[in-house]
Amino acid sequence: MGQRGRKQGSIGVKSKAKLLSIATDEFATNGFHETKISNIVKKAGVTQPTFYLYFHSKEAIFQELVSHFRTKLTDLTKESRLESGLDVNTLPGRIAVGLSAIFHFLNEDHQLTKIGFFISTEADDIKSQIADLIASNLVSEQKDGYFRKDIDMRIVADGLVGVIERLTVTSLFKGLKKPDELAREIVDLFLYGLQNQ
Amino acid sequence: MGQRGRKQGSIGVKSKAKLLSIATDEFATNGFHETKISNIVKKAGVTQPTFYLYFHSKEAIFQELVSHFRTKLTDLTKESRLESGLDVNTLPGRIAVGLSAIFHFLNEDHQLTKIGFFISTEADDIKSQIADLIASNLVSEQKDGYFRKDIDMRIVADGLVGVIERLTVTSLFKGLKKPDELAREIVDLFLYGLQNQ
Amino acid sequence: MGQRGRKQGSIGVKSKAKLLSIATDEFATNGFHETKISNIVKKAGVTQPTFYLYFHSKEAIFQELVSHFRTKLTDLTKESRLESGLDVNTLPGRIAVGLSAIFHFLNEDHQLTKIGFFISTEADDIKSQIADLIASNLVSEQKDGYFRKDIDMRIVADGLVGVIERLTVTSLFKGLKKPDELAREIVDLFLYGLQNQ
Amino acid sequence: MGQRGRKQGSIGVKSKAKLLSIATDEFATNGFHETKISNIVKKAGVTQPTFYLYFHSKEAIFQELVSHFRTKLTDLTKESRLESGLDVNTLPGRIAVGLSAIFHFLNEDHQLTKIGFFISTEADDIKSQIADLIASNLVSEQKDGYFRKDIDMRIVADGLVGVIERLTVTSLFKGLKKPDELAREIVDLFLYGLQNQ
DNA sequence: TATGAATGAGCTTTCATTCAT
DNA sequence: GATGAATGAAAGCTCATTCAT
């Protein structure tokens, strides 16, 4: 551990934050392997050993970013479960709120989202975890009579994660839609489908 | 004329095919950077210079795999456009056919699919291209009156690609659903939605 | 005046002593290069700059240990010279006394002995110095008629140092023999040899 | 392993031998840590990767040297055991022969001897192993009636190893004595002792 | 008497790639 | 069609040491 793990004054905290922020950019832009510590520290205006004052290794700083992403996202997903006894008319709006919160988070730091969703080796695992949470929410909501019963919620949950992931980059990141709009449109699609009514 | 301007006899063809096949496995399993040429040639039973007889570079062999994937997938997508004047009742089945063909292809070579969809830098680009094609199909099908008009087909197309991508790994690769089932369920979801009718 | 020209109060003295003691353990256990200042200070509960308050450098603290060892050992060796006019019958006992004192010292602090005898670059030099002193003792004792004249006392002295060094680790440190026993047995061997009389 | 372990032509063998020889010098002169691979390859006229073509690591090349030393020395020691039924008058000569062979080997490559006896971490272990072999020889020779029975052969063996080690550097390496002389003098000392007869 | 923060200098190791044969 | 041998270029990481406070 060396000096890592000792108390840090405000200067140290600032240095570490700067390194984290630059690392986020670099990892998101160039991927893990193409990101060089030498480059990060150069942009941060410190030397290589300083980097190792705050992070164990290249893997460690990357992991710190991924873990933060995962925690935030799973928390938001958990919070999106709907209570029972809701008026069916309010359903679309209520679902959209949860989804919108997720899109807000994903939109907050594009670079971090890229890392968590596409760059990290855990990306797949994270998406599965989110899908699990969503599936569990959907099943319980299905039991509450909010949704039709003849559909496999595992498929819906996985599909929803795919939709979120894809629209995040194609629509949200490009500024084509705002989180709330996107949430509303997805809810519309998933609730009512494409059929000509 | 093969790679690098040399004529290749059957031995050369065999070596090249072997290298390609092993490379597919390695890239899919370990990613681009963790895949070492030294490892590929060891498993293929040839030396490093032999590798360079068939491929310009590590990038080149990787690109060969990705391009193949992209071509096959875009072709299949193009073929899935529906002609006009269809009976609306046959619609779900007809859509499912196209989708099923795509899942069949994705299921054919898991490793190649992983490369094209998740490992390659172009993954995002490929998905966008597929989404473009699907969007164009959907819009024209929408004009044919097959779908409701008050929905943004860009969103639907991107979403569909996300659904395909995600369910490919979570369901198809794990053998939980067959291509046809998966196609049918997705069509069901996208046509009729989740609402309790 | 202490190290580096500063007066040292009792706290400083304690810190320095602690550093020295921990350094002894570390150097003896891990060797010079494997011993990290960062490790020493961590175990001592101080920071790196504090270390440099008491010692110029890693070399300096090491040197302090080695010098102490050397001084003590050479002093003991000098004291072991026998006066002339001794009764030949008391000879073995008298020699053993000197040798025993040396073993006592070597046994006092195993870690320090390891450093002085095996780890330091000067180890060889120290042993040569001891051998010189012993040789000079032996030659003068030889002139006093205590030993046979047809033997090269340089060889005997060097050999004796080798014996001391080796038996220190193989016998003394393992607690197999006490200093006095060891001294007596060595004297027996060196005086009378292995021959079947 | 990379390319290591493949068949090597005569050029490769030469490169490896050169690296080994230079490494021996460097390790013996500067110790393990002060020896830099960069220095070894510079002196060998090759680049760093070439080094790793032949050796796994710095540790590995060092180990190769130490193992060779250990094997040679233990073999020689085993061969020095005396058969039973010898004329007691030939004893000193016969013992000296074995000892002389050992000194010849130690004198052959001073640098390698330094590594095996003083630089390697295993040095102590090697000496113990040699002492074990010698002890076993001595005990069996003692049973054959070649030596007095009232002496602990463990002590003699360890002592002898110390004597060998020390005289190797102080006498042999400096050219003060030849292997045979040295062997003879040591035998004289160990058989008859210092006493004035 | 002590520390938080930082660094200069350097080391081992890796890998894609190539040349001569 | 294939190989033994070699390399250019760099990357991650470590450590003793110091400055400002």
From TrEMBL, chains A, B, C, D:
Lineage: Bacteria, Bacillati, Bacillota, Bacilli, Bacillales
Annotated PANTHER family: ACREF/ENVCD OPERON REPRESSOR-RELATED, TRANSCRIPTIONAL REGULATOR, TETR FAMILY
InterPro entries reported in the protein's UniProt record: Homeodomain-like_sf, HTH-type_Tx_Regulator, HTH_TetR, Tet_transcr_reg_TetR-rel_C_sf
Keyword Repressor belongs to the record: yes
Domain HTH tetR-type: 13-73
DNA-binding feature ranges: 36-55
UniProt keyword annotation of Repressor present: yes
Residues annotated as transmembrane: none
Keywords from the UniProt entry: DNA-binding, Repressor
Pfam family, one: TetR_N
Protein name: TetR/AcrR family transcriptional regulator
